[in-house]
Amino acid sequence: MAANERLICRSAELIDGGVGVRFTVRSDDRDQPAFAVRFRGRVAAYLNRCGHVPVELDWQPGEFFDDSKLYLICATHGALYSPQDGRCLGGRCNGRGLVQLAIEERDGAIYYTPSEQEA
Questions:
Q1: What are the C-alpha distances in Å from 79 to residues 8, 16, 57, 86, 106?
Q2: What is the DSSP letter of 29?
Q3: Which of 8-12, 43-47, 88-92 bottoms out in mean pLDDT, i.e. has the lowest?
Q4: What are phi and psi of 15, to 5 degrees?
Q5: Are 45 and 100 in contact (CB under 8 A)?
Q6: What is the pLDDT of residues 11-57, one digit of tens each?
Q7: Which of 17, 86, 90, 115 has the greatest number of beta carbons closer than 10 A?
Q8: How far is 91 from 26, CA to CA, in rounded Å?
Q9: Alpha carbon of residue 60 to chain centroid
Q10: Is residue 98 within 8 Å of residue 105, measured between CB atoms?
């Protein structure tokens, strides 16, 4: 285990296309909201900040997917993002994707694993 890694949640807490887990990371010398979701069996994590303007995406705490459960959606602007890599797929994000965070899933848990520069 790296010195700067941190437990986000147990793996079972993230259901494919379901509610995400919110957590906080230190970025740009301040605490910032972040989230992790599971899509097609894989876990991904992002800063909880729309690519259009810096507002949080979830329309209710932990609700990041659109009705189809295929896209992450900004509740404020309706911008759509790929749950796999955070890239903008349409809407007001205009090609600006989500900021992806380093995570690792192992031994039934999900960890935030920032590099030394990010920690």
A1: 26, 21, 9, 11, 31
A2: T
A3: 88-92
A4: -100, 140
A5: yes
A6: 999 999 999 999 999 877 899 999 999 999 999 999 999 988 889 99
A7: 86
A8: 28
A9: 14
A10: no
Q: Which residue has the tokens 């994590």?
A: 45
Strands lying side by side in the sheet with 30-39: 21-27, 30-39, 42-47, 100-101
Give residue 93's pLDDT: 80
76, exposed or middle or buried, with CB in 10 Å at 0-12, 13-18, 19+? middle
Q: Cβ distance 76 to 36 under 8 Å?
A: no
State if pTM tops 0.90: yes
Full strand arrangement of the beta sheet holding 72-73: 72-73, 80-81, 88-90
Residue that wins the pLDDT comparison between 7 and 26:
7
Tell how strand 72-73 and strand 80-81 pair up.
Answer: antiparallel
Q: At 100, give phi and psi (nearest 5°).
A: -80, 145
